[in-house]
Amino acid sequence: MIVVDVETTGLWAHAHAIVSIGAIDFENPLTTFYSECCIWEGAAIDEQALRVNGFTREQICDPNAPSQNEVMNNLLDWAAGVADKTLAGHHVAFDISMLRAALKREQLLWPFGHQSIDLYNACYLHMLQNRHPLPLKRGAVSMSANRVYEYVGLPREPEPHHGLMGAKMEAEAFSRLIH
Predict the structure, then answer these.
(1) Tens digit of each residue's pLDDT (9 = 90 or more) over 66-113
(2) Coil, strand or helix: which one is 6?
(3) DSSP structure string for 111-170
(4) How far apart are CA 24 and CA 30, in angstroms?
(5) Rounded distance between C-alpha atoms, residue 169 and residue 151, angstroms
(6) Do residues 81 and 87 touch, judged by C-beta distance below 8 A?
(7) DSSP 8-state symbol, 39
(8) Is-contact 143 114, C-beta < 8 A?
């Protein structure tokens, strides 16, 4: 599986852009991908998203940075060497929505599976299996990535968020839940 973490200009795939992608081949954790890119023209920018990921407007609009097209093609080239292309991550549906939108914008085919593995769900089930109290907030389980890391004995993710660091921490958390 490919553990992936994207940093973006906001939460909506139709309006916001990817600013960086980090990915790890779970079976071969030294096989990683990381790239930053210039956002596509007209992409919305949420200042809160930039506070989370630490990028500046100048960085994400730098015409000398790789384009979204270049980064997507590089990601596809890298992923071609990974046997299991199932995507995984914490709340990975978000990452998948951003990747799908970027590939569609660039008229590139989706090479990843149609199923995914979510760290949130894996941790939730692990907690149930081990009779560990579930962290409830307003009557529902609330589990940030940092809550998962705490549960598996990892430190908090450094701030600001970084795509490759996020993917590495998520991969380690998966490994600890599995093993």
Answers:
(1) 999 999 999 999 999 999 999 999 999 999 999 999 999 999 999 999
(2) strand
(3) -S-S-EEEHHHHHHHHHHHTTPPP-EETTEE---HHHHHHHHTPPPPPSS--HHHHHHHH
(4) 8
(5) 13
(6) no
(7) P
(8) no
